[in-house]
């Protein structure tokens, strides 16, 4: 498949470097509260990328970390009066529940920052030894960006009118610093009173790792110096991913990520959403409004990952209708195929265009469109042709990670059934006037009676 690469700004073919397994890393959640649906846009698109590769026959190794120590997790665990471990464990569990509801495949490896303190210390030691990092008087350690000429390539700093020379002596100690300040960034933060019990011993004294370091250390541990793809929301391009490249390239010497996949932010009602702005929806919020996680997933894949997607509650209602339509189409195909099975079920049949869309820069909205057009084309198929088409349809659904709603049995009240029966007898007796009156009476009560050759059906009248 082809995918846009942030570093080279071109669409490039995705192929495992080792010719066998596509190994990729996704920056995971910071577990200090529930993930919002913006975070899930990113995680869902990463999931569709993995599912598409696997559907195409490529084996994957998916690593996604848990950020369980940083300024925010420490601050909020203290507010909650809990240990950092208990606090982040509870939010990690909540994250996992949400992921499962949204149909996300669990990563093969899910390492956490706190579990990899020795690896992070070792990386800092390597950086100091090679002249890329220095300790300050207070026992913090900083990465010296002037020591790495490649700094800024991913985010195209040179095109952003930032003068590296001017800001070179500045230092940033916060985990998240001003997006446009280019400065030596912190690798190890010396212990401060507000850290409470959350510190570890190191050659530079007690402290804790800076946020950017954990991903570099865990990537080195599980994927080595060079791996296939790195991913996150677009806000991570600078400084987080830029800093990861600097740390890893200087400490390990490898090529780091072959490909960079960044997902554009989700907007809500036309505006920016973030934990700090407080205008976020969580999955729980939407479930409380009666929507299902699959409807949320449908909306999140309803836009191309390189374009902004505006989330509204109306889009969830539209997703409900779309999913019901797809389910109906699938039932129709299943009934057309009867007892036949697909002889050759490796292709996509009428759903080839949907498959091509996924392989063409992960165009999920076009793939969804392809499901509907494919169903229209497939409507006339019967027997084993219908079976083959259904197999193709289901393969696309799996790649998109969608499960369709079950048909809900509509309960027909006894008096409605009796009325319909009377009308059917009137119709058989060619008693047209009575038949029409009874049909109108049914419609008034919200039921649509459809006449077949030998029988009739009753459906709730949606008009
Ligand atoms: P965090 O838990 O803040 O570390 O973020 C987890 C992931 O969600 C990262 O890849 C972020 O880039 C991504 N992210 C944060 N906000 C949004 C948003 N509004 N839309 C899409 N992705 C987001
Ligand atoms: Zn990261």
Oligomeric state of this protein: single chain
Number of helices in the DSSP assignment: 15
Number of strands: 16
Classify the fold: give the CATH topology of the largest domain: Rossmann fold
Detailed description of the structure:
The chain has 463 residues and is of the alpha/beta class. The chain is 43% helix and 16% strand. The strands form five sheets. Strands 5, 6, 7, 8 and 9 form a five-stranded mixed β-sheet that branches. The structure holds adenosine monophosphate and zinc ion. The site of adenosine monophosphate has 16 residues, from helix 1 and strand 10.
How does the SSE layout of this entry go?
Elements (H helix, E strand, L loop, with lengths): L1 E4 L4 E4 L7 E6 L10 H19 L3 E6 L6 H9 L4 H18 L15 H13 L3 E3 L5 E3 L20 H4 L3 E2 L11 E7 L16 E3 L1 H12 L3 E8 L3 H16 L3 E8 L2 E3 L2 E2 L10 H6 L4 H8 L8 E3 L1 H25 L14 H8 L4 H15 L4 H18 L13 H15 L3 H13 L2 E5 L4 E5 L3
Parallel strand pairs: 3-4, 3-10, 7-8, 10-11, 12-14
Antiparallel strand pairs: 1-2, 5-6, 6-8, 8-9, 12-13, 15-16
Helix pairs in contact: 1-13, 2-3, 4-6, 4-7, 6-7, 9-10, 10-12, 10-13, 11-12, 12-13, 14-15
The structure holds adenosine monophosphate (AMP) and zinc ion.
Care to give the gist of this entry?
This protein is of the alpha/beta class.
